[in-house]
Every structure is written in C-alpha cells, then in structure tokens.
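Posting here for the record, re: flavin mononucleotide.
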Amino acid sequence: MTEKPSGPPTEDHTPGDFAEAAEPFALFDEWMADATRHEPNDPNAVALATVDAAGHPNVRMVLLKAVDPAGYPARGFVFFTNYESTKGVELLAHPYAALDFHWKSLHRQVRVRGPVTQVSDAEADAYFATRPRSAQIGAWASQQSRPLESRFALEKAVAAETAKHLVGKVPRPPHWSGFRITPLEIEFWHSRLSRLHERVMFKRAEAGGDWTKTRLYP
Ligand SMILES: Cc1cc2nc3c(=O)[nH]c(=O)nc-3n(C[C@H](O)[C@H](O)[C@H](O)COP(=O)(O)O)c2cc1C
Ligand code: PXP
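Prediction output follows.
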C-alpha cells in the first residue's frame, strides 16, 4: 500500500505541555471538546477491544455516549449495545476492556484500559428513550452478530417490530443496554516531529484511587 504524501506531520501539533495535567478525566474532557469542534464526524467513535473465551482479542468501533462526572463511584466511559452480540457475550464473560480513540485531524490518541460493569436499567432506559424511534425498533429487530439469512429477513423483522410498536413508547429490549469501562490506565498521545511523539500514562490501582503519571518513550 502506498502512503499518502500527507503521512507524517510536518509541524509539531502540541499546544502547551499536556504532561502538566494532574489527572486524566479533565484532560480527556478537553481533548473530546477539541475533537467535537474539529473532527468532521463521530468525534465520539472509539475502538473497543475485548477478549474471547480462548483469550483471543477482538476489536470493533462503538460510540462513546457518556463520561461520568466527578464524584461518580465507578466513574468511567459508557457505550450501548446488544448484550447478546459478540462483544456483549465477551464482556459479560470477561469484564475487562480497552478503548482507543484516534482523532486524526488533531493528531491525538487516547487509550483506556479497565474493568467493565453493566450500566443500571435506569441509565439504559434513559439513554434508549433518546434514540430515534427507528433505531429503537432496530434494536428489537437486530439479532446483532448472529447470522442473517438475507437483507429481506432483516427488513421483515423490522416490519414485524414496527407493527408491534405502532403506538406509544418503544420499550428498551432487555438484551440492549450499556457497559461502563472504569479506567485504571489512560494514556494520552500526541504526534510530534520525527515520530518523537509525546506520551503520558496515568495509572491507578483501583477505581477512586490516586493516579500516578509517567512519561513514556514514543
Ligand atoms: C463509527 C461506528 C460506531 C459504532 N457504534 C456502535 C455502538 O455504539 N454500539 C454497537 O453495538 N455497535 C456499534 N457499531 C457497530 C460495531 O462496530 C459492530 O459492527 C457491531 O456492534 C457488532 O460487533 P460485535 O459482533 O463485535 O459485537 C459502530 C460502528 C461504527 C463504524
Ligand atoms: C448497531 C449500533 N448500535 C448502537 C450504536 C450507537 O449509537 P446510537 O445509539 O446513536 O444509535 C451504533 C452507532 O453506529 C450502532 O451502529
């Protein structure tokens, strides 16, 4: 594959020294706000890595829907999905995950690792209620990650669910909910000239514990 001429950065992209940050959540909020201003679409898209029963890694994109505010006991990163999907099954069996945000136009990456918990029914209901009706129906119709015989079979399932939910609110399917990743590690990365990038790793032993901060070689 040929690399585009725009490949490596031609200037340093680091405004200020983000290694000065005392803790990672405020810095993440700042970077997400920058991404929201600069990325052409889905600034909240993030790669989610899980492991399967054999210990083999698996990765796919999801949309980050919340970062808990300060004071929240298991303060973390929340996304929503089908608990019967491949990722759902993997996370329920092995509740530990990694996330990787890459904001290309900002030359920034954030990596997160930590234990995973299920969001409460109330949280899932509240988020589900904000989704467009068509996406709510889709959540009922899609047996996410399982074999689909034909596109027509999916369209039939959507039609059947639409007929079931013609009036009133669409309830959240019991198998559709959220996961929360409570970070024990967060690494911030920013590209610098000659691949001599800036890396800062925050680590802690447990949720709510004190963070240690370490610079890493690029
Ligand atoms: C940008 C982007 C965002 C996505 N967000 C989600 C999401 O939030 N939840 C979800 O279930 N699938 C999402 N998907 C689809 C997943 O990447 C994946 O195809 C699906 O969840 C099945 O994954 P699994 O078989 O590993 O469970 C997204 C895909 C893309 C490209
Ligand atoms: C299958 C699926 N579920 C959930 C989501 C999360 O986003 P939303 O709740 O905004 O639809 C996405 C986003 O692409 C998705 O593809």
